[in-house]
Amino acid sequence: MSDPRTRGTVSEVGRLGREAFERHVQPKLLAADDGKYVVIDVDTGEYEIDADDNEAATRLQDRRPGARLWIERAGRPTAYVIRRRLGSSR
Question: For 60, how many CA atoms within 13 A lie in the half-sphere containing its CB?
Answer without folding.
Answer: 26
